[in-house]
Each structure stands twice: as structure tokens, then as C-alpha cells.
């Protein structure tokens, strides 16, 4: 399914400063019923990530952290069961999971002698039960399950989507009897950076010669195309895997066959 | 001419404009109007500029290069053909060694214009030359400059007449516009009596007719054997032998003067009044003092002027305005390697009052100047240099003068040397001596009668007998072809009565010619030919060394300078002498017919055109093959054309051009009637149009090189020369664009054309006179598509094979090294020859060698395609064999290594010991098995090669040939494969085992539990289960809804939950899309979901009152979860989370607390063996740390104690009911 640029722009327009919550996604779905939830979520996620990248720094100044922490303490002091952290994140227009991380880090700093390591924090975010403070644990958990763009659960979903799409792609190649080498085989041959699949016999799709396929399983907006090109694809080119490529950046798990864009 | 050079030196005219001016007749729009004006006034002189420049340089260098190898050049010998000067006085038509371009008399306009131009320059201010001139004259007297030569010395090359004459000359104000003031290099000075002292021109009495006929010999080339016949007279009686050209009539005079000069110097040298020591040193003699004067960049006298002239000179070279590129390079290298300055005459040391112009001071005042100039030019010509062979590049890069004057150029040359793969041997490779029999054409059926057949056989026998005798004896001193074989040949020819016999014999002759001479260099000579088995007994590496040693020993020190006349080297000499001795008209005619046919055939041969853009290594190999084929065709064509030219022009061949004009005219009238033996003009035009010049022109040049003196005057051939001249001009090396000819192709054409223009029979003014038809020529080639010219068919090897004279550059540099090696340390590396002690003890090698020779002989009698096929098959099968061994034997060994390693790990525990040590142990166990590779490889080649050969050879190939071909292919393939395997198999096994070991160890390390058995989908699975990502996302939504915050209307239906868990089951059973992280998260989420169920925290959609799950529903869901945990999850499920403080805290917050679901769940967990009692106990124990409401802790304790104390029950189902009842009871009791 090919999304036109105009449709994409319209969706992106709706996502300006919207909190990454279930409710926002539901509203989006109502607004664009013809698009699948996965597509919308992928676009939402990407747009939101761009937004976070832009504003990330201002939430990490020591003043900001301190003020958030105080507000959190005040909030839970009044009512520990209220969604203090989530509301705070939405209010200051920051991702709840990331806000949870800020507060958790600050909290641990206060309560432990040594500054917490990244892995400890990550582990606590994955499993908030490990957080020594029960109230904070609940608050963090609430943030994580309510965040649809960041957090360990979202990361896992993204990873799963990536894996699923690779599998779907492989099935598709097998179904079309296209002979290919996958990443493991290529690595065994000594390539360091490899695309997901190299076609042993190139094919032509819509007038383009395709030598290799890399499934990205995410919506292919201009920005991500550019970034992938820079980080990954040039090295395929350089390692002479073939000058023609195909990047599959799809938007929904069920619609892997859609090539949203191609170079 | 001088005016032009002057205005350049005064920077009135830019070099670019000047070169444009020379190169093109039309005025270019790029020209500055001022420049254009300055140049347009000199228009009539345009054509004469280049010869003037070259003459000027040669003249200027005459003091530096008096003795070295000759610098040949060729230029208009007479000005008669120049417009506007029909009646010019005769000039020295035949010059001395460096008599390059005898000065031309200026036309009246030029004479009038030039001085004014010069005056104009003066008005503007003194030019750099003038300034220097002034200084120079002063400096000389004061002895400040320390330079060896006076600035005006150049005007007076050695021995310029009697002591009295110079003063006379100097008393005249120098008239630079008078070209005769600038004598050509080395021109023979007039005798002391009777000539005008200002003229340096040798007043050879030459009649006007002769000058018109443009008589000439190959200037400065070594003795000419262009009339190769032993019967023909050789006109060259030069007393100087190699150094000086024939026909220099005043050599005696010159010698006389040299003698005088020398005695004068001998008198002078002891006197302290001598201004500089160098100028007083005696002439270096040929055999004597070879030590070179060191060159110092700091002592260059007039950099700017030298730079400028170097630039003009280089531009002329780049635009192909000079006749012979390599000749100029040779000259420049001569300058680079100039040993020392020749002393100048004392009289020249005095300042010349009027001589203030830049041109009047000598250009090269010292060796430093020469070297500086040479290096400047070389810098401009770097591109050409970089395409020379590796040896030349090495010598250039190691030249210490070059390093000293331009480290940058030296660096580029070194880089070019290091990157070069063009190793070219200057030695002439031995020719194939085998005699061919052609059963297809030489059988009885092709003859009219038995008698003719028998005659032919007899003749064939005589022919080969003659050939063998020639081979054996032609190098014996005193043996003469004509005397030894002439009568036998003529007797044999006499028997060839029938025309058909002639044609048979000619075919034999031609085949033999091609066979003997064309391989691979077209020359011959049995170099070490007597000892082929000695060579084959040596190993390949030793053979290489021996070759190099041999090359050094047998490579001719100089094969005749950079422009040798056409010769018939090696076995070509046999065929030439055979033709001459046979002197049979019929034979010659048949031979011409046959040669013409073969030339036409080869010339139009469609050479395959692979894509030149392929960068792949594989196709590079193919490309090599194409190149080889092209070289074969080209060399054959050149050989055939040379003999065609020889035979065709044989009747007209004479030592001298016709002496009078009348005679010449009548000859011309006669000759123009005769149709050419082969329509070479048409072939040339075709070649140019089809962009196959790179094939056509080299053989055409060979053909024309054997033409007689009249040929270039014939209209037909004149038009060919015109075409060639325009082609020459168009081959600008620096132009590289799409559709242009490849660089080396151009270089080959430039080399052969340059050589042709220097051939004695080609009029020397031809090069500079042709004008005009440039446009038509260009139009001609535009119509062409991609042809051979645009493909890289020429490599350095072919270039040097076709033009061995390019090797003169290398020899010149090498002779410089050997001359200076005493001082600068050994540049010549020693080759330690292999001793022959072990030779006797290696019989197997000899049989091998014999085998190889047999194979060669076999191929020799078969079509070349057979050889190509066999070699191709051997190459591919050999390569496949290696791949096969890798995939089978090596892979097996790797598997063995893995299992051995596993055992090792089991016996030694998880640690396994040091990986490096492990690897060593494994390798020592496994590498010996590598020996099998050779046997297996042999088997593979044995099995695969014959089939491939059979598939590729024609069906009709005779069985014996086929089996031989198969055997050879097997042998070659085996050799190739085994050579690789024996050298690399151990390393290969080692590498693969190492990779396997590290792989195994890595896999061993981190997660042995996770690597436990994993089930895939069932066979019937169609992978239609919901995707894990979708499920995680769905469950996450439920969790978020439960945790809140949520809108009042939000909630989930129990059916949805049930469906969700059903889907989860499907997904977990279809493993297709599941990856471990996703499964782990699913497990965790399912536990979270269970906790929420237990705590009754899930908001249910439905009638407003309900909002809670019914017990039964909750229990059903928990049952589903339990079975998922038990049966479907393959990762550990974090069930302890159920009892984490946070999840239990959910329960603590509810009022009234309902424990029954939790207790139910825990019991079930214990029941199903999902959690042990001790585990639960541990979790509960850790709960005590948390801060709970007090009553909650108490409740916990009372509830869990009985659970933990309960003994194991054998009947789970029964117990479940009891449990429920108990729970209810407890809860009720509490409330």
C-alpha cells in the first residue's frame, strides 16, 4: 500500500505536539480510518521521535531535572496513587518513559551513595519491581505502559516487528523462488556490514534493478531514508554488494509487501 | 623564426597563443588581440617555427652532446617547397649528425618583419635575455659566474672556422632576423677559405635539381641497412661508422678541424689564463673519461628562459607538432644524462658587443642548464613517461639528477614505477623453430597431378633443408647466404613450373614465415635455443633469473638508436635473403598475391569486443586473452605487410634517389601508371572510418617503410601520407574523452608514425609541409562508432615489441647509470646466476620438461582454439577443484574440530582451557588430514576435466586428439589445483578451524540455558498466528488501561481478554515469527496480566454496575495463562513477579482484599511444577522488607503459612476444589 506524500503530510500535521498516549493514537485512528494502526503508529512514533530529538536537551538541564523531581515529590506527597509522573510528562511535553527515567535517575542519586549505572536504570525500567520505592515503581510502570513511542515495551515491539518483517520477506523471496543469501551466510563469508538479503540473481522491480534488500520495517519518511543511506547503505555500496538496492520501509506488520518508497 | 622565439621570451606572446598559432592556421578567438597582431605579422613563418625550434635546441646542445649516442632528427632538408621561395639557394641537403633542420632562408616578408618586431621589443625595455647577456659578458671577465661557457658561446660551436673569421663575424652587428646566423647544430663549418664567415652552412655543392628532389638519408641514424640485399650496394661509407650518418661529405674536413681544435686545447689547458677549468678540459673521448660532471640546480644560469623554452618545446611535443615524440624524449634524456660540457673556443669567451639579444646567448651554458631544461620538459611529459615500461621508469626514478632537480617529479615517477605492471624485456624472445606441416592443404588432392605433388614435396624438403642449414650456419663468420644457398634455391625455383605449384610453395613459405617470425616479438634469433632442456631443468624461479641474466647478456646495447631504419632481424633475414636469392618473378608475384590476401583477411578480422568497463577480475582474465589475440593479429599483419612492401617495391629499390629532375619526372610518370600491389589507401580509409586505426596503421607503416624514394612522390601514396600526417596531428595524448583513442593505442600510433617520418626514403620536409586537409580528415572519422581504437588493446609489451626503438630510452638511461655507478653506488643489481651443478641429478624434471614439450608440439599442430579451450578448462577446473576441497574436505575437518572441541569442553568442564592452546591441539590433530586434499584434488580434476573438454571441443575432433587434449587439461588443472592446495591447505584449515573454535566458544559462553532445546512450529502450521509484535502491543494496551489513567468509558470485555490469550497461545505455538526478546516480553506481560487479574484491577466493559470480572471468568483466564506458561512458553517465565511487592501491592490497595485468586494461582503453580514451594517462600520472605499496611502483612502471613506447610497432594483436581472452598472460607471469615 502506497501512501501519498500528501496523505503523509496530513498525518504528520496532526501529530504536532500530541502526547504519545493511547488516547492520542485512538484519536488519530478516528481521524484517519483508512490507515492501519501500525502505519499510524509508525508515523506517530517517527514524528514524535523527531520532536523529542529537538527538545531533548532542554529537559536534561539540571534545573529542569530538579524542578521535575520536586514536582514529582510534591505530587506523590499529595496522592501517591494519582498519575503524577505521567501528567507531569504530558504537561511538559516530554515522553513519559523518558520522564520516568529522569526521575528514577534523580531518585537513585538521592538514595544511593554511588551514582546509578545505566544498566541498573535500564534494568529497573524493564522491571519496575526492582525499584526500591513502591510508589515510584508504580509511577514508572504507569509511564511505561502508557507510552506508545518510548520505553522497553515499545522497543521490544519494534524489534519484534523488524524480525517479523525479515521472516516475511524471506518467505516472500522463497515463495517467488528468488535465490538469496541472508545476513548469516554473508557474515560467514566475511562481510562486516550486510543487508538482510542479497539476491544471487538480480531482479527488476518497476524498472529498477534490485541487487539486495534491506528490510527496515518502519515507515520510510525522507528523514529515515536519508539516515539509513548515510549509516548503512553506503557501506553496502562501498563493499560492492551491488549498486542497486531495495530498502523496504514498511509501515505495518500486515502489509510487508508494501514498498512505501524506493530510492 | 627567431623573432617568434624572441617575442615569446620577452613575454609579448603567451606560450599557449604561440602553440595555437603554430598548430592551427586559423586565428583562434581565444587569442589576445595584441598577441594575434604580433603573430599574424609573422604568419608566413608559421610552418618553419617547429623545425627552427628543434634545430635551435639541437644546435644549442651541440656542446653538451658531442659524443653521446646520436640524436637523430629529420626535417626539411631544403626550402624549395616552401611557398615564396622557389629559387632559394641550395642548402646542405644532407646534414651531419645533428644537422637537423638546415636553416631556411627567410622569405622577404619575414626578413622585413622580424627585425622590426625585435626593435619593438627593445623599445619596451630590455628583455631578460639582454639583461643576462650584459651580466654574462661582465661576469665572464671577472670570473664571477664560474660557469664553464661564455654566454655567447653557442653561436660558435666547435671549430667555427679559422681564428680570423670570428672577429669578422663579430664585427657585424648580429642580425637575428637572418636565420642563417643561427647555424644548425653540428653543421660542418666552412673551410677556412672561400666562404662567408658568418655562414655556418656547409656549402656542399648541390645542384638545384637535387635539392628539389629532396634527397636525404636518415639523419643521424646509424648505418642504414635499408637496402638489405647482399647484392645491393651499400652507399654508406661513413668513416665514423655508427656515430655519423652516411653521406656527410665534409667529414674529412670536420675531422681535420677537430684535430686542430684538440691540439689548440692541449696548448691552452695548462695556461692559468683559462677562465674556467671546465672549459679547458679536453673533449671527452668515446672510450676515455666517462665521469659525468655533477649537475647542481643552484647553478642553472637562466631559469626563466629555460623554463619558457621548455614550455614551448613541451607544448609542441604535446600537440604532435614534432615528427617523432620518442626522438624528442630521447634528446631530452640525452640532455638529462649529458656528462660534461665541451670546451668552447677561446674566441667565444670574449664578449660580443652587439649580441645582447636573448637568443644570442647560448641556451645551455652548462650541464646544469641542460639538466634543468630536460627535467622541465620531462615534467611536462610525465603522462607519456608514466606509460613507459617498468624498467625505464625505475631508471628514471633512480636518476639522481632528476631527484636533485625535481623531487616532485621523482616522486611521481617512483609512484608510477611502483604501480606499473608493464615489465618489458628488451631481449628478443626465441622464436618457435618448429616446421609446420599442413595436412589439409598439402595433400595430394590439392595438386593437379601426382607429379606436381611429388615436385612440391621435394621442394618442401629442399626448402626446409635450406632453412635448417641457414639456422645452423648463418651466424658463422664468413658464411654467405647467396654463396651457400643461392644456387640450391634457384634450382628449386626452376622446378616450380606450374602456377599451382607456385601457389602451394608460396603458402608454405608464408606459413613458415608467420610461424617463425611472428612469435612473439616478430623478430627471431635462437637465443639459448640450443639448450631448451637446460632451461626446463631449472625451476621456474631460477628460470626467471636466468632469463634476466640472459637478457642482460644478449640485449643489444644499442639496436640502432631511437630511429633505426627498417631491418629484417633474426629469421626474417632468411626469408628476405631467400626472396632475393630466388629472384623469381613468378614466386614474387604469387607471394604478393598471397600476402595481400592474408593482410586483407587479417585486417578485416572481427576482433571480439568485450565490455571495457568491466572491473571484475574474472573478465580481466578474458580481456587479457583478447589483448593477446589482438597482439597476435597485429604482429602477423606487420610481418606480412613488411614482406609485401619488400617484394612490391623490390624492383624499384635503389640506393639513391634519381639524380635529375627530368629523370624523376619520367619515373613518376611511369610509376603513376602502376596500380598498387594492395589498395592500402582504401584499407587505411576504411580503418580510420571504422576506428580501427590502431590495427591498420602499424602494418601500413611497415609496408611504407620499405617503399623506395619515388613512392612518397606518387599521388596515390602522397595522399596516404597526408592522411597519416593528419592522423598523427590528431593523436593528442592529453586529450582524453569519451570516444577518444586509448592512451597506449595513441602512443603506439605516434611511435610507429614518428618512426616512419624518419625513414630515409620518406622526404624529410613532408612532415612540415602538409597543410590544409585537416578538416576533411576530421569529418571522415566523425561518422564512426565505437571501434578498436577506443579499447585498451595495446599494452606496453606490444608497444615495445612493435617499436623496439622505444627501448633506446631505457638503454640511454642505463648507460648513464653504468657510467656513473662508480660514483653513485651500484644501481645495477647483480643477478647471481644459478649454477648448473644439480642439473644431472634431476631426471624426473627432464621427463616433465619433455612432457611439456610434447604438449607444446601437440598444440602446435592443432587449431589455436583447441589450445585456448584446454587452457580455459584447466584454469576453471583447477579453480573449481580448490573450491570443492574447501566445501568438502575442509568443511568436514571443521565439523570434526567442532565435535572434538565439544568433547574437550565436556571433559575439561565449561572452562575448556586457553582457546589458543585448544586451537593448537586441534590443528595438530587435523592439519595432517590436509594431505588428502592433493589426492582428492587430483581425483576431482581427473573426473571433471575430460567432460568439459569434450563438451567444448567440436564433435568431430578425432578421438586421439580429444584424449590428448583431455589428458593435458587434466594435467594442467591438477597442476594448478595442487600447486595452490599444497601451498595453502594447511593455512586454510587452520583459519577455518580457528573461526569454528571461536564460534563454538562464543556460543558456549553466555546463555547455555537459553540454548536449550527449542521446538519449531508443528509441521501442519501455516504460520497464520497473530504476529508477536501485535500481541505485545495489544497486551500493553490492556495493561495501560488497567494501570490507568483511563477515561470513564474505557475498558475491556472479558471476551476480548479470552481472545487475546487464545491468540497468545497460537503465536507461541507458531514459532515462525517469534524471536527470544519478544517471547520474553510476552512472558513478562502475561505475568503482569495475571497479577492484574488476581488483584481484580482490569476494568471490564459492560453494564455500568459490573465493571469487574466475574470470579469464574477470572479463573478461566488464569487457567489459560497457566497452561500457556506450562506448555507454550519456551523462555523462562518470570513468575516470581506475581509476588513482587508492586504486584502484591495492587492487592493491598483493594478493599476488601480478595486473596482467593492469588491462592488459587499459587497452588496451581506449585501443582503444575511451575514454581517450587521454596521459591514461593523466598519471594514471600523478601516481601517482609517492603512497607505494607500492618494488617496486610499479618494477612499475608496467615494466608501463606498453611499453603507452604501443605504436603504434596497426589490428586491435583480434587485438591483444586478443596482449595477453592478453603479460600472462600478464609475470605469469608476475615470479612
TrEMBL record, chain A:
In terms of one coarse class, where is the protein primarily found?
cytoplasm
Mark the transmembrane ranges: none
Instruction: Write out the coiled-coil annotation as residue ranges.
Output: none
UniProt keyword annotations, A-Z: Cytoplasm, Nucleus
The record's subcellular location field reads: Cytoplasm; Nucleus
Q: Does the keyword Cytoplasm apply?
A: yes
Q: Which residues form the signal peptide?
A: none
* InterPro entries the record matches: CDIN1
Reply yes or no: does the keyword Cytoplasm apply.
yes
The protein in question is named CDAN1-interacting nuclease 1
Q: Which organism is it from?
A: Felis catus
